[in-house]
Design brief:
The complex is a heterodimer of chains A (about 220) and B (about 300).
Chain A (H helix, E strand, L loop, with lengths): L20 H24 L7 H15 L22 E7 L9 E3 L7 H11 L8 H4 L1 H14 L3 E9 L9 H5 L3 E12 L2 E6 L21
Chain B lengths: L11 H13 L6 H19 L5 H5 L7 H7 L14 H20 L3 H18 L6 H15 L8 H8 L9 H27 L1 H4 L3 H7 L6 H9 L1 H21 L6 H18 L3 H11 L19
Classes of the chains: A alpha+beta (about 220), B mainly alpha (about 300).
Chain lengths: ~220, ~300
């Protein structure tokens, strides 16, 4: 049994000012459910992965109403990491036959800043293989190319995704900051043939060990 | 039923129940939430405007994020009003409605409807192009849904001014305001916890070099800051550890009544600084806005003359 001053709770709040018990009960259940969902989104959207149990509970009970409201977020964001994947990306689209940068379209444009440029960088990051399931991985490069065929002036283009090369502190020079270096992380060839857009795989150049031919003195056999 | 004397301690369940009621259900006036509304609407207008230049290239009839791309990409639960905007004109029209909603939210006219419209349209826009979403966009969603719950138009708004002109009684404290502020506060603390958890998984936050990697990976790197960090191990370590420490203090400190004013003040500067360092200033501003939910009520006791209700 509670011990209260007349008309007041012991926390000094006039008890009459609190909403009805029924309302509080209903809202408390809703809040508990939401806070549980919020906790699950944080637990399940981590880059460290998530357990099957939590993932299943979230996807069956919470995602159906949290996803439409854009509440299935997780807040596991790049700026909390400082890892290599967090570096900025860009997209270069150019005619397949051309290797000069003067023919290419760069998104975001060189020197572009602000949120719109950040959205292009975000879009570019999704073009990196492994960021999305294989069955949808080719959609964005194809769509990018198709959108830019006219601007590039060709219907056979190379779509390159580049990422800022992270520099070690010890190797920093003022030029690095003024002109960041980029390394390709994905290349795709997209062309339109008879109205149909085709995405062709492109084998990227890789660093390989030099070929050494052992001499006969070292025991090589022909 | 046995009764407790005034000196006997209360059962834990009763104490928890009272704390729960005091946290979620004590009616609160709208001024604090109104300040958050104004900051949210300003942030929303900036983020909404960031789609303007590329709207057709992204979502137009020939856009990069075509209906077929989004069908394959989006969760089956994702829905968007923008899916129905299949022509350039209808896309612009819907986009313009969003601008109006955020502007109405900013000045507080038709606030309950403006909040709902802004939230629904914002979420729709995010669902139309999930691959374009930035961290600040997520924060705006939380802020907007909480404004839908609260009665932020009861203060510092044209709605309040019109009420006063019509000589209607001033809106009093409301449970809805308390619910909205408490939800915002829980999110502010929870997101800080999520950030700390993420950081504690990464080696760079332990070896003190994360600040360098945050800055150096940017397309538009801040040369002066990079040079300063490159120059000094200690400065790099200090900035890295200061970020983590700040987030821990913020996440926990807001729950301590005596520290709240200090922690919120710290958040008003600290979050934007972290955002600036990591290349996402608006995310930092969004976190500072969320943190305002913990601001002591005395902060908002004064009445701005322009929109004063009465």
């Amino acid at each position: 049994m509670s011990v209260e001053q007349p008309g007041k709770t012991d926390s000094g709040v006039p008890s009459a000012s609190l909403p009805s018990e029924g309302f509080r009960g209903f809202v408390s259940i809703a809040l508990t459910l939401y806070l549980l969902g919020f906790t699950l989104t944080v637990a399940c959207n981590s880059s460290s992965g998530s357990s099957t149990l939590l993932r299943t509970v979230k996807s069956k009970l919470f995602s159906p109403w949290m996803v439409p409201l854009w509440l299935d977020i997780g807040f596991d964001e790049r700026l909390t990491y400082g890892q290599i994947d967090d570096a900025d990306y860009l997209i270069m689209v150019e005619p397949w036959e051309s290797s000069g940068e003067d023919m290419s379209i760069r998104l975001p444009a060189k020197g572009a800043s602000g949120v719109a440029a950040a959205r292009w960088r975000q879009l570019a990051s999704w073009l990196e293989p492994g960021m999305v399931p294989e069955d949808v991985a080719g959609l964005l490069p194809s769509a990018m190319a198709e959108n830019l065929f006219d601007d590039v002036g060709a219907e056979d283009v190379r779509v390159r995704t580049m990422r800022v090369v992270l520099t070690d502190r010890e190797e920093f020079s003022a030029e690095d900051a003024a002109e960041p270096q980029y390394a390709p992380v994905a290349v795709a060839r997209v062309r339109r043939v008879a109205g149909s857009v085709q995405l062709l795989p492109v084998e990227q150049e890789r660093d390989v060990a030099p070929v050494v031919t052992p001499s006969a003195e070292q025991g090589a056999t022909p | 039923m046995s009764s407790l004397s005034a000196s006997e301690p209360r059962p834990l369940s009763e104490q928890l129940g009272r704390a729960w009621n005091a946290f979620w259900f004590v009616p609160t006036n709208a001024r604090g939430l109104a300040v958050i509304r104004i900051a949210t609407a300003a942030l929303g207008l900036l983020l909404w405007a960031s789609y303007a230049n590329d709207l057709q290239q992204w979502f137009g009839p020939e856009g990069v994020v075509s209906p077929s791309v989004i069908d394959s990409w989006r969760s089956s639960y994702g829905i968007s009003l923008f899916d129905s905007a299949t022509t350039a004109a209808s896309l612009w029209a819907l986009y313009a409605v969003g601008f109006v909603a955020f502007a109405a939210l900013l000045v507080g006219i038709g606030t309950p409807f403006a909040a709902i419209a802004a939230a629904v349209l914002w979420v729709s826009l995010l669902h139309r192009g999930p691959m374009l979403v930035q961290p600040a966009d997520d924060l705006l969603v939380i802020l907007l849904w909480c404004l839908v719950i609260g009665r932020s138009g009861d203060a510092i708004s044209l709605d309040a001014r019109l009420r006063a002109i019509r000589k209607l009684p001033e809106a009093g404290p409301s449970v809805r305001n308390r619910l909205a502020l408490s939800l915002l506060g829980v999110h502010a603390s929870g997101i800080a916890v999520a950030a700390v958890l993420s950081q504690l998984k990464g080696d760079v936050w332990w070896d003190g070099t994360a600040a360098w990697w945050l800055v150096s990976g940017r397309d538009q790197a801040a040369g002066t800051l990079m040079a300063a960090l490159a120059e000094s191990d200690y400065l790099t370590n200090f900035v890295t550890h200061a970020i983590t420490l700040f987030e821990i203090v913020f996440a926990a400190g807001v729950w301590v009544a005596g520290l709240r004013g200090f922690v919120v003040t710290m958040g008003l500067f600290g979050w934007p600084l972290i955002g600036l360092l990591s290349g996402d200033l608006l995310w930092g501003c969004g976190m500072a806005t969320l943190g305002l939910a913990w601001a002591p009520p005395a902060w908002f006791a004064g009445r701005p003359a322009l929109f004063a209700g009465r």
